[in-house]
Write a structure and sequence with these properties.
By secondary structure, this protein is an alpha+beta fold. Helices cover 16% and strands 45% of the residues. It is built from 7 helices and 31 strands. It has helices at residues 2-25, 28-35, 141-144, 167-177, 366-372, 410-416, 423-431; strands at 39-43, 47-49, 57-60, 66-69, 75-78, 82-90, 93-103, 107-110, 114-129, 132-134, 137-139, 152-156, 159-160, 181-187, 190-196, 199-200, 207-208, 211-226, 232-235, 251-265, 274-279, 285-288, 291-293, 296-300, 314-315, 325-332, 338-348, 359-363, 383-386, 389-398, 401-409. Strands 8, 9, 12, 13, 14, 15, 18, 19, 20, 21, 22, 23, 24 and 25 form a 14-stranded antiparallel β-sheet that branches. Strands 26-27-28-31-30-29 form a 6-stranded antiparallel beta barrel. It has a 4-stranded mixed β-sheet with strand order 1-7-6-3. The longest helix is centred in the N-terminal third of the chain and has 24 residues, at 2-25. Mean pLDDT is 86; it is low at 424-432.
Length: 432
């Protein structure tokens, strides 16, 4: 009997606690406390609303870094770059500590220009095998040597290979001497050694290795941003892959130049469209390419370029500051004229680490939909502007819905470009 009473008491206590928690969940202070983030990052001069109602007392450890407006709604006003904690109190008791980081004011020039891209690989890229007719039958020496499509031949007999013309002399010399070639190939970021013995083609008596190779790739894309102080830029918003192997191209170097959009192949469900463009007639190189990454291509410009529509530097928004709703993209659909088109940010993920798919965007501009059907190839890299800030770039289209696609947050593209927006704040903290 005593055991039954204890069990009944435990159930009553459990029910009471559950009801208490549910009631607390509907209380304004609890809801506001949960909604306030533990970390807030702002640029100098920015404001951030933390809660809808004034329910907490606030203690700031460094008012020169930020102050709190708490008359009605609680909002943080950033002043100087630095870092400090903000303690929230309720009825005199500390209930939460919020870390506030203020970053030095940072701006970049938005892009939107159509650019031509030429990549030079680290060696020569293997894009296929082919069989050679010999006196004893058809063979592919490259396939026999274990070389795969997507491999990059970087050395032959200890010598660096930079272009296709470097390969032929080694092949003919090997055929004459009968000695196999010592090859070093780059595969999935690993170097592999193998031997390959060329064979004589019965048709023309020349020696061949049974591989299709290529030493460069070209295409078009869209400029995303330029950092005016360093002249570093970012474009495309996604990696450039070889059209045959579908694998990312390992870049030795490359160049970008101006390009002109000549026509648009309109997209439809299941069939992404495409910008058709040509390189500028003078083929003037305006910058180099040092990096080809999942976040785009990056390098330095030799000359300053302007888009003719937003030629002043804009502040950026961190991934945590991007919101759903109206925005614009800058891109070219005819000639070399950069125009602004309306879009909507359907969703945005406040990412704490670099990731390529941070936003989902939808084209709502009737003129752009009429012209392109939505997002088309060549539009990748088009900068996304929201509330006067550069927030990211268009990257991929949804194949079954060309009006929508993914966007990448601008802070990750800046990181890949070697621009550390946290640098000044970190230096300031170390010095203190």
């Amino acid at each position: 009997m005593k055991g039954l009473k204890l069990e009944h008491i435990r159930k009553l206590i459990g029910a009471f606690l559950l009801i208490s928690l549910l009631v607390m969940g509907f209380c304004t202070p609890v809801r506001e406390l949960i909604a306030i983030p533990k970390d807030v990052v702002l640029f100098e001069g920015q404001h951030s609303k933390l809660s809808g109602k004034r329910v907490f007392e606030v203690i700031s450890s460094n008012p020169s870094v930020f102050t709190v407006d708490s008359k009605e709604a609680m909002a943080v006003a950033a002043h100087e770059s630095g870092e400090a904690d903000m303690v929230l109190q309720l009825a005199g008791f500390p209930v939460k500590t919020v870390n506030v980081k203020v970053l030095k004011d940072f701006k970049v020039l938005p892009g939107g220009q159509s650019i031509g891209v030429k990549l030079n690989a680290k060696g020569v890229l293997v894009v296929g095998h082919h069989l050679i007719q010999t006196e004893t039958g058809k063979v592919s020496p490259g396939e026999i040597a274990g070389i795969k499509v997507g491999d990059m031949i970087t050395k032959i007999n200890g010598k660096e290979i930079e272009r296709m013309s470097d390969v032929a002399p080694f092949i003919q010399n090997s055929g004459t001497t009968g000695e196999a070639l010592d090859l070093v190939v780059l595969r999935d970021s690993k170097y592999i050694q193998t031997k390959l013995k060329p064979v004589k083609d019965k048709g023309d008596s020349s020696y061949r290795i049974g591989l299709y190779i290529r030493d460069s790739a070209a295409g078009i894309g869209t400029m995303t941003f330029v950092h005016p102080e360093s002249m570093k830029y970012g474009a495309l918003g996604h990696v450039i892959s070889d059209s045959d192997t579908k694998k990312p191209i390992e870049v030795e170097d490359g160049q970008i130049m101006r390009s002109t959009v000549t026509s648009i192949q309109k997209g439809s469900n299941g069939d992404p469209g495409e910008k058709l463009a040509r390189f500028s007639p003078d083929r003037e190189v305006i910058g180099n390419i040092t990096t080809n990454s999942p976040f785009g291509i990056f390098g330095k410009l030799d000359t300053q370029i302007r888009n003719g529509i937003m030629d002043r530097a804009l502040p950026i928004a961190l991934s945590s500051q991007v919101k759903e709703g109206k925005a614009q993209i800058l891109t070219v659909v005819e000639g070399d004229k950069v125009e602004a088109f309306d879009i909507e940010v359907v969703s945005s993920v406040p990412q704490k680490a670099p990731a390529t798919k941070g936003m989902v965007v939808k084209i709502v501009d009737k003129r752009l939909l009429e012209k392109t059907g939505g997002i088309v190839q060549g539009m990748s890299g088009s900068p996304i502007i929201q509330d006067g800030k550069l927030i990211g770039a268009v990257t991929h289209v949804f194949v079954n819905d060309p009006t929508s696609g993914y966007g990448v947050h601008i802070e990750w593209m800046l990181h890949q470009a070697g621009i550390n927006i946290y640098e000044q704040q970190e230096h300031g903290r170390k010095a203190s």
